Amino acid sequence: MNGYPRLGVNIDHVATIRNARGGEHPDPVRAAEVAAAAGADGITAHLREDRRHIRDADIERLMAEVGLPLNLEMAATPEMLNIALRHCPHACCIVPERREEVTTEGGLDAAGLHNQLKPIVARLGDAGIRVSLFINAERCQLEAAKSLGAPVVELHTGAYCDAAFARENAKRDAELARLATAAREGAALGLEVHAGHGLTFDTVAPVAALPELAELNIGHFLIGEAIFTGLDASIRRMRTVIAEARGTATTMKDRA
Question: What is the pLDDT at residue 104?
Fold first, then answer.
């Protein structure tokens, strides 16, 4: 792949902070506007069943007010399918979801859930929505995505990031190797390959350097870092780290 990966900024946890106290501040749509100005290529938002962060009204406003493509993360349920078909975002990333989890704990079992996923992927695709499956870096899951007709997969980078944070270097390197293999295999199958979950300034470069990756989706770390440096600065620094990992210092403004 030429250039370097697109950066999708997940603004869920701006909404998490808002919802902790109620009211309308901080506004996740304002965060999306800041992300756009800072060089993000897209906005990601996960509308969970329990609405713990993004709300339905946020999706409406993100579609109407922000001039970036929206990647709607969603569970494979009739409710979420209907919402996606009503709004028709640029993309929908189907993710596993359990009410009791704090954050997404692993990839979608696309192989085991083939029959459940097939009609959902088909209906989203028929509506002109780019469908992505959030999966672990496993050959069987890549093949299942291809069989389902999903044009995009997003590789779960959580195990790699967890090992890096724990300074378990051998495990970190093994997980990175798994991601690299999956990226190559996914591209060979004709899939567009994305990655995300838990990435930070310290862990993103080796992933961004994988030549097959077209997009990285990052949220929690950027929102957390914004407490100390501001959202604009945290996104711009992430954009620079990603660019340097691909051997170019070109900025988003230079590309425009």
Answer: 53
